[in-house]
């Protein structure tokens, strides 16, 4: 945080600033910075995990079904059922328009252009987030997952060691650092420096500009 040019108006740096808890402020800003970056960065640059071992709950007659999502699910990277020609790369959140489209066999997703939708279902009294898939050939004897990859919810840095593996690509480390630093300088009431740091992050990931002034942390 003592990079040349990032001093305050009085020329003060933050060397020896432990008294104001700089380390804790940086740790606390990481999760929000990651969520902003996750919305615009390629999913392959984020930590990815598999849920291919999940068991589908199919409607064989209708050619549809759903899969329970992992408890740490944040974003979908890729999902493909056996029999689909291509994978679904984005998951829609269920609403009236989506429900109307996917409930109609003529407008729903197909093996050529599959669709997946995130929704909640009641499983034995427990509300469970699931991924509905549309669709497969009607009357199959079973539905099998070919590929299921997701971005897990980010872990905060509290109590993490200095060599903790963030599990992210080198391409997003710099913009993450600038966004975190911008948050800290905002807290410390240094808006000019914070704005300069935000601009650096936006130059590295231009998609961040479109998120400015919005809530970029949609909870799935």
Describe this structure in words.
Mean pLDDT is 86; it is low at 1-12 and 213-220. Strands 2-3-7-6-5 form a five-stranded mixed sheet, with no helix packed on it. It is 28% helix and 21% strand. 27% of the residues are buried. The chain folds into two domains: 17-45 and 168-211; 49-152, no CATH class. It has helices at residues 22-40, 96-103, 173-187, 191-204, 207-211, and strands spanning 49-50, 57-59, 64-68, 73-81, 92-93, 115-123, 126-134, 145-152. A hairpin with a 2-residue loop joins strand 6 (115-123) and strand 7 (126-134). Helix 3 packs antiparallel against helix 4 (191-204). The protein is of the alpha+beta class and 220 residues long.
Fold blueprint:
Elements: H1 22-40, E1 49-50, E2 57-59, E3 64-68, E4 73-81, E5 92-93, H2 96-103, E6 115-123, E7 126-134, E8 145-152, H3 173-187, H4 191-204, H5 207-211
Parallel strand pairs: 5-6
Antiparallel strand pairs: 1-8, 2-3, 3-7, 4-8, 6-7
The biggest sheet, with number of strands, parallel, antiparallel or mixed sense and barrel status, is: 5 strands, mixed
Beta strands, count = 8
N-to-C series of helices and strands: HEEEEEHEEEHHH
Distance between the termini: 33 Å
Structural class comes to alpha+beta
Strand order of the largest sheet: 2-3-7-6-5
As for the number of domains, it is: 2
Summary tags:
5 helices, five-stranded mixed β-sheet, alpha+beta, 8 strands, disordered N terminus, 220 residues, elongated
